[in-house]
Design a protein that fits this description.
The chain is α/β, with parallel strands linked by helices. The protein has 2 domains: 103 residues, Rhodanese-like domain (Oxidized Rhodanese, domain 1, 3-Layer(aba) Sandwich); 59 residues. 46% of the residues lie in helices and 14% in strands. It is built from 8 helices and 9 strands. A 5-stranded parallel beta sheet has the order 1-6-5-2-4. Strand 8 and strand 9 form a beta hairpin. Helix 6 runs antiparallel to helix 7 and helix 6 crosses helix 8. The longest helix is centred in the middle third of the chain and has 22 residues.
């Protein structure tokens, strides 16, 4: 896999040697993205990659790198060979002071929604276990196990579930631009 730093990727993009292909969720993309990015969420990429040009070079972009690796495997299996992964994803891009297109969010970022849901779940189950029945402690343990799984694997079922909620849904207005549903 060809992984390049934000500085190297910025050089590729500024000289039009590659196109950024963002594989994050629609809400993450709407929040901030590299200008000119095509948007194909990784969980839909198998169905939408036919819209991409096999002869072009793409820089795969996600939040930290895991989903870009998954997209790389999927696209390579479909015949795409000129692929670059942005090392560290949008987080590293932003830390390297590279420009991002931002949209004013009317919805909390997805990770803050996850943090709130887990925090409220643990708090509620802990209070229920203390005041109502000790068996409610298993609810708090469930949230702890989910958080541990997410930290260990990079896969967060709660984030996937929340991304499908109506307030986080978007629709595509063309091939590469996603805008929030009004």
């Amino acid at each position: 896999m060809n992984t390049q730093s934000p500085t190297e990727v910025a050089s590729l993009l500024s000289s039009n040697q590659a196109l950024p292909l963002d594989v994050r969720t629609p809400i993450e993309f709407s929040d901030k993205h590299i200008e000119g990015s095509l948007h194909h969420p990784v969980d839909q990429l198998a169905d939408t990659c036919s819209r991409l040009d096999l002869g072009k070079r793409y820089v795969l972009v996600c939040q930290s790198g895991k989903r870009a690796e998954k997209a790389h495997h999927l696209l390579a299996a479909k015949g795409f060979h000129d692929l670059v992964i942005l090392e560290g994803g949008v987080a590293a891009w932003e830390q390297a002071n590279q420009p991002l297109t931002r949209q004013e969010m009317k919805v909390l970022p997805l990770m803050r929604q996850v943090q709130l849901a887990i925090g409220l779940g643990v708090l509620a189950f802990s209070l229920l276990a203390y005041f109502v029945n000790p068996a409610f402690a298993f609810g708090a343990a469930f949230f702890g196990a989910g958080l541990t799984l997410a930290g260990a694997t990079g896969w967060c079922g709660l984030a996937i579930l929340l991304s499908k909620m109506p307030w986080n849904r978007t629709h595509c207005d063309g091939e590469s631009c996603c805008v929030p549903v009004k």
